[in-house]
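Sequence, please.
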């Protein structure tokens, strides 16, 4: 494939951009890519590192945009006592400076994880096939019990009764299959 700029040299860089479902492809040789201001090529291999990708994702979020506003200085003042990294530096780099940073910035981490992982901040992992069904039912029962507790506190007794019946049905199914008490 030939460079789309000079139409002379072979294209070494193939860049695809998709915006609102519209796909645009750019094919450039190394010289034309460098002439474009280095937008496409970088001599630094770390330019495309996972940390830079994560930092880019973090910087896009509205929460980070709010943190960068002048009135939001608490992230700037909180600093790891061990490595002296600020939360703003973490957002820029995409990685912590030391293990103590996880403790120092612990309160700010869950909202970022939720945003990055489509609302999930808890890793549940894969389950073994032979016992996965039982564990799945136990997790479902735990969720239903939490819902039941919330509904009772809100005095939504009719909905709570439906959830209670669903819990009993699941518990009966587990005990019928020879599972332990849940």
């Amino acid at each position: 494939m030939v460079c789309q700029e000079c139409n002379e040299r072979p294209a070494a860089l193939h860049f695809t951009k998709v915006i609102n479902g519209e796909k645009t492809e750019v094919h450039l040789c190394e010289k034309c890519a460098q002439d474009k201001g280095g937008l496409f090529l970088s001599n630094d291999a770390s330019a495309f590192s996972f940390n830079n990708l994560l930092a880019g994702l973090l910087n896009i979020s509205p929460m980070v945009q709010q943190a960068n506003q002048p009135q939001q200085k608490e992230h700037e003042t909180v600093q790891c006592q061990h490595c002296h990294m600020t939360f703003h530096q973490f957002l820029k780099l995409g990685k912590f400076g030391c293990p103590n940073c996880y403790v120092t910035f612990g309160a700010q981490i869950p909202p970022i994880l939720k945003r990055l992982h489509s609302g999930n901040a808890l890793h549940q992992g894969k389950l073994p096939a032979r016992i996965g069904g039982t564990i799945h039912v136990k997790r479902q029962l735990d969720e239903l019990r939490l819902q039941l507790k919330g509904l009772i506190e809100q005095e939504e007794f009719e909905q709570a009764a439906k959830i209670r019946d669903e819990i009993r049905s699941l518990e009966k199914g587990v005990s019928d299959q020879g599972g332990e008490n849940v």
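The first strand starts at residue 13 and ends at 19.
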